[in-house]
C-alpha cells in the first residue's frame, strides 16, 4: 500500500505540473478509494485467478500489496522469521488457505491472524516455533486443519487452542513434546471436534491412558515413534485400539510402541487366559440391583501389575481406582461391579486389559449391559425374557408351518401328476411337513431334520378324472390340522383314507 501511495504522490506531482487540479483530485480519489482493485500481482509472486504463490523467493519481508481476492496464499520456502500483526495492511476476507511452511518463523505476534478470519487451512510446518502461546492462534474460529509438524515445539501453553472451535486435524509430529497435550481436548472453547491428532516423532514417554479411553475420537491419535515406556496400561490401550482396528495402530503396526518387543515387555496376563475365547455376552439386571460383569478373556486371578479399564457408556474406571463412593468399581480380578444399577447404565461396556494375545476377528472385548424393569411387560410375574422366548418359539413354528403349506401347495399344483398316465404312479409322493423332534409317529421318517410323510398309492380308478380335487382337500386338511393341532396329528390325518377321498 505504501508503494501504491508513493506512486500516487508522484502522479499528483505530474498532474500539478500540468496545473489541472480536477484530474489531480480524480487521480487522488482513485488512488485512495480503490487501492485494492488496483493491486495486481506483486513482482516476486505468481498469480492465477485467486491463487497467489510467492514460494521460494528468499523473502524475509512480505510483499505489501498482495491481492485481496486471494483464497490461497503460498509463502512457503522463504526466509520469514516473524509474523507481525500488520504483516498485511488489510484483512484477507476470502483467504481459506495460508501456507507458511519452510520458513524460519519463531515468533507469531498477538493477533497476527486477525487479518485472516476465514482461514480453513494453515500450514506452519518446518519452521522454528518452540513455544505456542495463548495468543498465537487468536481469531482462527473457522480453522479446520493446522499443520505444525517439523518445528521445535517443547511447550504448548494453556489456552493456545481455545479459539479453534472448528479444528478437526492437528499435526504436531516431529516436535519435542515430552508430555501429552491433553489440554487440547479439555480446554473450554477448544477444538471439541478434533478427530485427528498426530503426535508421532516426539519425546513422549507416557500417555494418559484413562483420559484417552474417555475421548470420543480416539481413532485418530497417532503415537508412533515416541520413546513410550511400555507398561500394562499402555499395552491394554494399544491392544484395545488394535481390536477396534483404528488406523493409527493398524497403519503403523511396526512402529507402534510395545508391539514389536512385547515378548521382552511386561508380563500382564496369566497363561491360562490365552485359551479363553472372547464372546459377546449380555447381562440383564433390574434397576437398583448390584451385579458383577466379568472381564472377557481374563483368568479369575490376574497377574501382578495388570491394569484393567472398563469403558462404560458414561465413565472410564480402572482397577487401581479406590473410590468407595463410586457406584462402579473394578475388582482386583478385572470384574466390574455395578452397585445400585440405573436404567442409564444400559449400553456397551468394553473391558480394556492387556491379554497379550492376538484377537480373532469374531472375538469381542465388549459386553452388553441392560438395566430395565422387566417385570412390567410380563404376565404373572414371570420375567419378560421367557415370555419373549415363548413368543419366538411359537412364531418360528408358525412361520415354518406356513412355509411348509406353501411348499405343499406348490408341489401339488405345479407337478404334473403321473397318476393320469400310469395308475399307482402317485405312490411315493413326499411332502415335507412341520417338524417336531419330540414326536415320532408311524408312517413318518426323519430325514435331515425334516419329517417326511409318504402317501400310500390310491386305489385304482379313484380320483383319476379329477386330480386337483384331492389336492385341494389335502391342502385344506393339512392347514386345518396344523392350525388346530400344531402339526401333531398331520401324519395320522394324511394316512386317514376317509379324509383323502
Ligand atoms: C535469511 O535472513 C537472514 C537474516 O534474517 C540472513 O542472514 C540470511 O542470509 C537469509 N537467507 C536467505 C537465503 O536469504
Ligand atoms: C511465545 O512467547 C514467548 C515468550 O514471550 C516467545 O519467546 C515466543 O516466541 C512466543 N511464541 C510464538 C509462537 O510467538
Ligand atoms: C462438530 O461436527 C458436527 C458434525 O460434523 C457439526 O454439526 C458441529 O457443528 C461441529 N461443531 C463445531 C463446534 O464445529
Ligand atoms: C486410574 O483411575 C484413577 C482415578 O480415576 C486415575 O487417577 C489414574 O490415573 C488411573 N490410572 C491410569 C493408569 O490411567
Ligand atoms: C472376581 O472376584 C469376585 C470377588 O472376589 C468373584 O465373585 C468373581 O467370581 C471373580 N470373577 C472371576 C471371573 O473369577
Ligand atoms: C417395575 O414395574 C412395576 C410395575 O409397573 C412396578 O410396580 C415396580 O415398582 C417397578 N420396579 C422398579 C424397580 O422400578
Automatic annotation (TrEMBL):
UniProt keyword annotation of Zinc present: no
Bilayer-spanning residue ranges: 394-414
Tagged with keyword Signal: yes
SUPFAM superfamilies: Immunoglobulin, L domain-like
Pfam short name (any one): LRR_8
Domain of life: Eukaryota
Keyword line: Disulfide bond, Leucine-rich repeat, Membrane, Repeat, Signal, Transmembrane, Transmembrane helix
Signal peptide as annotated in the record: 1-40
UniProt xrefs under InterPro entries: Ig-like_dom, Ig-like_dom_sf, Ig-like_fold, Ig_sub, Leu-rich_rpt, Leu-rich_rpt_typical-subtyp, LRR_dom_sf, LRRNT
Residue ranges occupied by any Ig-like domain in the UniProt entry: 277-368
PANTHER family with a match to the protein in the record: IG(IMMUNOGLOBULIN) AND LRR(LEUCINE RICH REPEAT) DOMAINS
Protein name (Swiss-Prot/TrEMBL): Ig-like domain-containing protein
Amino acid at each position: 500500500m505504501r508503494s501504491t501511495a508513493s506512486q500516487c504522490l508522484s502522479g499528483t506531482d505530474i498532474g500539478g505540473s500540468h496545473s489541472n487540479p480536477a484530474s489531480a483530485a480524480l487521480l487522488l480519489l482513485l488512488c485512495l478509494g480503490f487501492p485494492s482493485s488496483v493491486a495486481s500481482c506483486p513482482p516476486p509472486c505468481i498469480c492465477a485467478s485467486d491463487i497467489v504463490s510467492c514460494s521460494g523467493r528468499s523473502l524475509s519481508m512480505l510483499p505489501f500489496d498482495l491481492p485481496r481476492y486471494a483464497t490461497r496464499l503460498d509463502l512457503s520456502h522463504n526466509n520469514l522469521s516473524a509474523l507481525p500483526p500488520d504483516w498485511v495492511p488489510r484483512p484477507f476476507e476470502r483467504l481459506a488457505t495460508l501456507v507458511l511452511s519452510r520458513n524460519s518463523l519463531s515468533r507469531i505476534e498477538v493477533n497476527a491472524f486477525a487479518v485472516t478470519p476465514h482461514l480453513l487451512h494453515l500450514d506452519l510446518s518446518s519452521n522454528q516455533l518452540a513455544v505456542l502461546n495463548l495468543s498465537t492462534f487468536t481469531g482462527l474460529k473457522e480453522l479446520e486443519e493446522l499443520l505444525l509438524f517439523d518445528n521445535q515445539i517443547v511447550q504448548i501453553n494453556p489456552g493456545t487452542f481455545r479459539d479453534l472451535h472448528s479444528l478437526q486435524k492437528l499435526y504436531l509430529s516431529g516436535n519435542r513434546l515430552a508430555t501429552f497435550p491433553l489440554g487440547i481436548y479439555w480446554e473450554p472453547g477448544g477444538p471439541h471436534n478434533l478427530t485427528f491428532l498426530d503426535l508421532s516423532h516426539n519425546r513422549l514417554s507416557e500417555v494418559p491412558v484413562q483420559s484417552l479411553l474417555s475421548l470420543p475420537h480416539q481413532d485418530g491419535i497417532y503415537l508412533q515413534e515416541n520413546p513410550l515406556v511400555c507398561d500394562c496400561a499402555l499395552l491394554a490401550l494399544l491392544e484395545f485400539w488394535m481390536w477396534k482396528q483404528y488406523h493409527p495402530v493398524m497403519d503403523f503396526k511396526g512402529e507402534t510402541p510395545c508391539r514389536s518387543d512385547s515378548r521382552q515387555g511386561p508380563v500382564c496376563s496369566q497363561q491360562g487366559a490365552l485359551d479363553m475365547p472372547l464372546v459377546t455376552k449380555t447381562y440383564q439386571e433390574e434397576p437398583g440391583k448390584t451385579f458383577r460383569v466379568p472381564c472377557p478373556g481374563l483368568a479369575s486371578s490376574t497377574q501382578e501389575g495388570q491394569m484393567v479399564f472398563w469403558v462404560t457408556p458414561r465413565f472410564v474406571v480402572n482397577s487401581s481406582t479406590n473410590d468407595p463412593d463410586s457406584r462402579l468399581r473394578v475388582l482386583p480380578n478385572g470384574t466390574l461391579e455395578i452397585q445400585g444399577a440405573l436404567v442409564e447404565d444400559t449400553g456397551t461396556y468394553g473391558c480394556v486389559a492387556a491379554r497379550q494375545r492376538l484377537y480373532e476377528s469374531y472375538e469381542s472385548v465388549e459386553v452388553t449391559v441392560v438395566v430395565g424393569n422387566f417385570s412390567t411387560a410380563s404376565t404373572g410375574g414371570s420375567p419378560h425374557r421367557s415370555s419373549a422366548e415363548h413368543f419366538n418359539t411359537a412364531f418360528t413354528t408358525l412361520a415354518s408351518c406356513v412355509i411348509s403349506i406353501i411348499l405343499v401347495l406348490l408341489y401339488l399344483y405345479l407337478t404334473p401328476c403321473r397318476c393320469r398316465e400310469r395308475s399307482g404312479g402317485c405312490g411315493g409322493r413326499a411332502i415335507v411337513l412341520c417338524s417336531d423332534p419330540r414326536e415320532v409317529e408311524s408312517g413318518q421318517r426323519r430325514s435331515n431334520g425334516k419329517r417326511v410323510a409318504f402317501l400310500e398309492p390310491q386305489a385304482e380308478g379313484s380320483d383319476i378324472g379329477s386330480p386337483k380335487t384331492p389336492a385341494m382337500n389335502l391342502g385344506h386338511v393339512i392347514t386345518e390340522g396344523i392350525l388346530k393341532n400344531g402339526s401333531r396329528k398331520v401324519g395320522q390325518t394324511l394316512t386317514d383314507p376317509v379324509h383323502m377321498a
